Amino acid sequence: MMAPTVPLLLILCLVEVAAFVRHVFTGPSIASYLSRKPVVSSALLERTAVAAAMLCLLALVNREFLGEALLTKLPDGMTSSRPEVDIAVALNEVTAPTASLGVFKAGVSTYYTGRRGIDFLGKCDAHIASLPPDLTGSISYHGMLSVPGHNKYDLQYSIEQLGPTYVAGKQRGTDAMNAFVDQHYVLVDHKGVNLLLKKDSPDVLWDNVRPWDWRMGMARILGKSASMELTPEAETWAKTKDLLFESAFTTGLDGWKSSGGSWQAESGYLAGEGTIGRPNTLRDFEAILSYYFESVSDETSRALIQLMSNNAGYSLRLNVYPGKMILDQITETGYARLGTNLDVRADAGVWYTLYVRCDGAHVEIWRAPLNGEGEPVLTTDRRAEIANERLLLGGAKVAVRYDGVAVVSERRAEGT
After folding, report:
1. What is the DSSP code string of 27-87?
2. Alpha-carbon distances, residue 359 vs 161, 223, 286, 355 (angstroms)
3. pLDDT at 227
4. Segment 242-272, tens digit of pLDDT
5. pTM (predicted TM-score)
6. Which helix (H) or strand (E) holds 25?
7. C-alpha distances in Å from residue 361, one per residue of 315, 329, 333, 384
8. 3.40.50.2300, 3.40.50.300, 2.60.120.560, 3.30.1340.30: CATH of 215-410
């Protein structure tokens, strides 16, 4: 917002600095001293003083960006924009140049793809820009009741009438296009990136995509499939499971309810801080999910994957720190540390996939970079089973994202 005026202010400031230095050097004291000891000319000293003052002023104004200037720190916004870049790379590979993109963030995806953008928030659309802002409080953050530039929308117009090839989401504020998008769009997976693409669109390279399927993630992380295609062994394994629930967060919170903090579903993932839970009762099960640290303030920042008893608050808790994982349990008999791995690095701005298996007293945890090979990170046979377990996700001292959550159990025989 200040970009057009800051350079002018700097120029005015430097003009005044130069005038001040010139006044000092033409004063009687300095002029008399230089006339007695003319080591260098007064004009050269004056220019040197102005240049030094200029450098000091620029250093003062730009001190917060010194790390970026010296290439020791990522530019501001780069980490938060990385998922949008991943989406743009995927869209380049699965859509034709004639495709159109319906987006809430109109910069990154359209810039890196060159595709025509349909701006859901109206900064590039005259119809939406002319609408009254949403002042209901449904678009409120950063302490503002309503956020200028983000509080005008008409998803029926943007999605149903304009019909973009790709849509970044189904909901905004008081608008929800869930039924229409579910009918006319399909969620696909391309190299670990989830995309909502228009069904039967000639602008989609359908040979390059396949429907999102939790079985693929589980099979990959367990090393049962080295590619997007499931091996016969992985298919056999998948057929022995019953899906309890899956959440791709493309239709809102998808049955998850916050139990503390602030959570929202945006761009196909769950984001927030605090804790959020799913009411499904679990017993022996396998789960897969992807997690992502938006930023890491210190080594105590952590993501939480927790099994909590509906009855008494006893829990099995996995703490995922930037450099380690800790598995512990709290029951009626007290606290117990079940396992620690001090060599599990999690960088901010990177998606990781986690696999958790609970089978009686046995707990097994694997982790992998998104679409990478998985490896076991923690295992224990000392778990105390908790009745009526339910799954909670959380973040402490960090904004964390979750995506692709699926929980399965052993398929039971008919009548059992």
Report:
1. SHHHHHHHHHS-SS-HHHHHHHHHHHHHHHHHHHHTGGGHHHHTTSSPPTTHHHHHHHHHH
2. 50, 20, 8, 13
3. 43
4. 778 888 887 788 888 887 778 888 767 888 8
5. 0.50
6. helix 6-25
7. 14, 12, 16, 6
8. 2.60.120.560
- Measuring CA to CA, which residue among 361, 364, 359 is closest to residue 382? 361
pLDDT at 371 over 60: no
Query: Could you tell me which residues come within 8 angstroms of residue 155 by beta carbon, excluding any fewer than 6 positions away?
Result: 120, 170, 171, 172, 175, 176, 177
* Tally of CB atoms within 10 A around 336: 15
Lowest mean pLDDT of 16-25, 141-150, 181-190, name the range. 16-25
How far is the C-alpha of 32 from the C-alpha of 21, rounded, in Å?
Answer: 16
Bigger pLDDT: 281 vs 87: 87
Paired with 393 in beta bridges are 276, 305
Mean pLDDT (whole number) for 200-216: 76
Contact 317, 329 (CB under 8 A): yes
Beta-bridge mates of residue 275? 260, 394
Helices (H), 62-173: 66-69, 78-94, 108-113, 126-129, 155
pLDDT for residue 159 is more than 50: yes
Burial 197-221 (b: 16+ CB within 10 A, else e): bbeebebbeeeebeebbbbbbbbbb
Per domain, the residue ranges of the chain are: 6-69, 78-212, 215-410
Strand pairing class (185-190; 210-211): antiparallel
Helix axes 28-36, 6-25, angle to 10 degrees: 60
